[in-house]
């Protein structure tokens, strides 16, 4: 094989030969992404794509943001990684900033390198502090790939093969309004689905911790009615639970506020972050109320946790989101995008939902009250959107939800082109289906 850029078929050959087969990829005919600038991506064959998934909610400021690139360059020439046993400046400055941003009073920070590690550490601190081993999580959550976090994950797509889940983990239903078990809609909802959570809690008095994604991403952007979180907060008080909100996807403005929990006035004791915070460099962290973590008297570390390059990149990232006033931009564009997608009339669109720039479009077979997933159509739209230069995301327990989760710096005109392309592709499908 030459040193010239990989063609898609060479890349697929290498993947089949050398990558673990459990590592999936989108598309029958995937492109080899080679470069990124702002909201644009380029493959090895010179094709341009509008990034509408941000590497699964990582690239909030798009690709190659100059301030982040500069911070990474400067820091990598100076010092890269010393681990937690030495004091280094970027991580300490970052801990102070995160503590000031975080809505939890007197936040302390534990740094690590990924979302899984952050959630694993969060339940470690929570269960240690409340003295109860049991953990409650929701059916559409995804919390990571370690044994405990995969056991906390509700989605069968990810954990279906887990033969020996961690016995501390219990599950209750997510608010799946499209298939509401009691036939309510958002305006008539009194969050009856939370009764099932109470049943799980009553049957398992060893549960002291609840972990949830406020807006489950991989679970299909399940936007809950306000009533759901009001009930959750009441249940937390009634059963004296420690609340962990997993903001790995939703943190730092994705839903229009710094953290999605702020949109519902939830009061987490612990917030976990990863993905976007590192500005493209691996980083995770637990933001935890000091009285919880102060009780943990044993040593705990993470080799790359206080990585100087990641921390410098994160500091530049936080400065940029402030300078660009990004939360307001997200609120404005998010509402417009949702309205524009909701205005499309197609019998195949069962639901459009989400907050900020995290919007899902659920595709179902038409004229069927059970809302069976339109998988073939979902595959078709994803592939055709890619062929037209738009990289959308995908999720949902049934894998039939298209996801708009673009870099937060995207402009309205760019979003409009993606919705127009989606409409055309949907029309071509409807014509074929007739
Ligand atoms: C909400 C959520 N939590 C945790 C994780 C795990 O993060 P990581 O892949 O960095 O371990 C993910 C990954 O997609 C996620 O979406």
Structure notes:
The protein is of the alpha/beta class. The chain folds into 2 domains: 8-61 and 325-433, Aspartate Aminotransferase, domain 1 (Alpha-Beta Complex); 67-323, 3-Layer(aba) Sandwich (Aspartate Aminotransferase, domain 2). Helices cover 38% and strands 16% of the residues. The chain contains 14 helices and 15 strands. The strands form 3 sheets. It has a 7-stranded mixed sheet with strand order 4-10-9-8-7-5-6, sandwiched between helices. Strands 1-2-3-13 form a 4-stranded mixed sheet. β2 and β3 (48-51) form a beta hairpin. α3 runs antiparallel to α11. The protein starts with 7 loop residues before the first helix and ends with a helix. Bound molecules: pyridoxal-5'-phosphate (PLP). Pyridoxal-5'-phosphate is lined by residues 56, 114-116, 119, 142-145, 213, 217-218, 246, 248-249, 274.
Which residues form runs of ≥5 with pLDDT under 50? none
CATH homologous superfamily descriptor of the largest domain: Type I PLP-dependent aspartate aminotransferase-like (Major domain)
Number of strands: 15
Q: Structural class, please?
A: alpha/beta
Provide a count of the helices: 14
Strand line-up in the sheet with most strands = 4-10-9-8-7-5-6
The main β sheet shows up as: 7 strands, mixed
CATH class of the largest domain: Alpha Beta
* Gross geometry: globular
Distance from N terminus to C terminus (CA atoms, Å) equals 46 Å
Radius of gyration: 22 Å
Tell me the helix content. Answer: 25-40%
Strand proportion, as a percent range, falls in 15-25%
Bound molecules: pyridoxal-5'-phosphate
Order of helices and strands: HEEEHHHEHEHHEHEHEEEHHHEEHEEEH
User: How many domains would you count in the coordinates?
Assistant: 2
Q: Any idea of the CATH topology of the largest domain? A: Aspartate Aminotransferase, domain 2
């Amino acid at each position: 094989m030459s040193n010239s850029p990989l063609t898609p078929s060479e890349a697929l050959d290498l993947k089949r030969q050398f990558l673990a087969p459990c590592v999936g990829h989108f598309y029958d005919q995937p492109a080899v992404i080679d470069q990124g600038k702002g909201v644009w991506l380029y493959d090895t064959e010179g094709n341009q794509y509008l990034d509408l998934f941000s590497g699964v909610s990582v690239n909030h400021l798009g690709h190659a943001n100059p301030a982040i690139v500069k911070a990474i360059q400067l820091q990598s020439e100076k010092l890269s990684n010393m681990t937690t046993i030495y004091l280094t400046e970027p991580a300490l400055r970052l801990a102070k900033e995160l503590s000031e941003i975080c809505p939890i009073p007197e936040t302390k920070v534990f740094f690590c390198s990924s979302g899984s590690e952050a959630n694993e550490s969060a339940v470690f601190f929570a269960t240690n502090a409340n003295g109860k081993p049991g953990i409650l999580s929701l059916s559409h959550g995804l919390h990571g790939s370690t044994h405990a976090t995969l056991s906390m994950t509700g989605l069968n797509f990810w954990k279906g093969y887990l033969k020996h889940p961690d016995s501390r983990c219990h599950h209750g239903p997510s608010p799946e309004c499209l298939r509401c078990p009691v036939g309510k809609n958002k305006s008539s909802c009194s969050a009856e689905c939370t009764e099932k959570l109470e049943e799980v809690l009553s049957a398992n008095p060893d549960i002291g911790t609840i972990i949830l994604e406020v807006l489950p991403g991989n679970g299909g952007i399940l936007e809950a009615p306000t009533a759901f979180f009001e009930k959750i907060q009441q249940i937390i008080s009634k059963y004296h639970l420690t609340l962990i909100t997993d903001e790995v996807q939703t943190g730092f403005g994705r839903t229009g506020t710094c953290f999605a929990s702020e949109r519902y006035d939830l009061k987490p004791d612990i917030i976990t972050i990863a993905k976007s915070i590192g500005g493209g460099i691996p980083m995770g962290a637990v933001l935890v109320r000091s009285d919880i973590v102060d009780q943990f008297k044993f040593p705990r570390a993470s080799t790359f946790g206080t990585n100087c390059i990641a921390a410098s990149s994160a500091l530049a990232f936080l400065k940029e989101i402030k300078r660009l006033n990004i939360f307001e931009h997200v609120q404005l564009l998010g509402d417009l995008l949702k309205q524009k997608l909701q205005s499309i009339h197609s019998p195949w669109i069962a639901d459009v939902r989400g907050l900020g720039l995290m919007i899902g479009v659920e595709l179902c077979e038409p004229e069927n009250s059970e809302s069976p997933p339109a998988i073939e159509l979902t595959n078709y739209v994803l592939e055709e959107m890619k062929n037209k230069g738009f990289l959308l995301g995908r999720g949902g327990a049934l894998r039939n939800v298209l996801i708009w989760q673009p870099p937060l710096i995207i402009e309205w005109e760019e979003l409009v082109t993606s919705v127009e392309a989606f409409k055309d592709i949907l029309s071509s499908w409807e014509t074929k289906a007739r």
